[in-house]
Design brief:
Layout (H helix, E strand, L loop, with lengths): L3 E8 L9 E6 L4 E8 L4 H18 L4 H17 L8 E9 L4 E7 L3 E6 L1 E4 L6 H7 L31 E6 L5 E5 L1 H4 L4 H8 L5 H14 L6 E8 L4 H5 L5 H20 L10
Antiparallel strand pairs: 1-10, 2-3, 3-4, 4-5, 5-8, 6-7, 6-9, 9-10
Helix pairs in contact: 1-2
């Protein structure tokens, strides 16, 4: 699978007692997942964990991303129906699968999102939410959607019984100067896209960007769990990795050793005696 540079982090936030987000990466299969669980007691945490584990296992066994997500949906419904403490649990999910040639597929259910950064930020996914429905119907200006009081109402989630959910998808090709951002609504519901874009524009490593995004959401209140993946092609960050603080001493040592070897070789060459004309 394609080698991608990535950074990721999840945080419980400042208001919740438990982190019901789950996130997982398996670079060997080119797979990155974020799920945002919901439900009483531990149910949301269980649902999101089932989702990422089920999708990962099914993809490893050869299933398509869409089929793997639908299998996770059925697994959550089954466990919810057979365990009273888990009744009504559900979860959103957003998934990225990237091939060796950097062709990628993004799939999602709910309001966990995928963005593409190419100097500017653009949303690749489309929320399955009541607010998005209002925008689509022309009842709400898209510019007024952020921070809407009903933004927490989603119209699709894994685990919704008696509902034929639709797994949406987006296909693209990752260019060298682009980044992909996957996140739960604890990020995009706390900071606006212009702020997310500014942090991506800073040109830091992917892990630094992920940490900065989490910090920005916490600084705005951190009302929900927050999960983030930032990814780019492996060629994009080679220079920053090679010259990172923990590798600079190694690089300097190699240069010094090389100079010593060069001086030693030159001193042993049979130069002819110098004589004036």
């Amino acid at each position: 699978m394609a080698k991608l540079n990535f950074g990721g982090r999840t945080h419980v936030g400042l208001k919740r007692q438990k982190n019901e987000d789950s996130y997982k990466a398996d670079p060997s299969f080119g797979l990155w997942l974020i799920a945002d669980g919901m439900g009483g007691a531990n149910a949301g945490e269980v649902a999101s964990k089932i989702a990422v584990e089920e999708v990962l296992t099914n993809v490893q066994n050869g299933s398509s991303l869409t089929d793997a997500i639908l299998a996770a949906h059925q697994s959550i419904i089954f466990q919810s129906a057979n365990n009273e403490t888990l009744s009504g649990m559900g979860t959103t999910i957003v998934a990225l699968k990237c091939e060796d040639n950097l062709d990628y597929e993004i799939t999602w259910v709910g309001d966990s999102r995928a963005y593409l950064w190419d100097k500017k930020l653009s949303q690749l996914s489309r929320d399955h939410s009541y607010v998005q429905y209002l925008v689509d119907e022309g009842a709400l200006d898209a510019q007024k959607a952020w921070g809407h009081p009903k933004s927490n109402i989603i119209t699709q989630a894994l685990g919704m019984a008696n509902k034929n959910i639709v797994v949406d998808s987006y296909h693209g090709h990752l260019l060298e100067d682009q980044k992909i951002l996957l996140c739960s609504d604890g990020l995009h519901g706390e900071i606006q896209e212009s702020e997310i874009e500014d942090l991506l524009n800073k040109g830091s490593s992917n892990q630094d960007i992920a940490d900065s995004l989490i910090s920005a959401a916490l600084n705005k209140g951190g009302k929900d769990n927050i999960s983030v993946f930032v990814l780019s092609s492996s060629t994009q960050e080679i220079s920053s990795e090679e010259l990172s603080s923990d590798r600079k001493p190694q690089l300097l040592l190699l240069i010094i050793v090389g100079l010593i070897i060069l001086v030693t070789l030159l001193s042993n060459l049979p130069f002819p005696p110098f004589s004036s004309p």
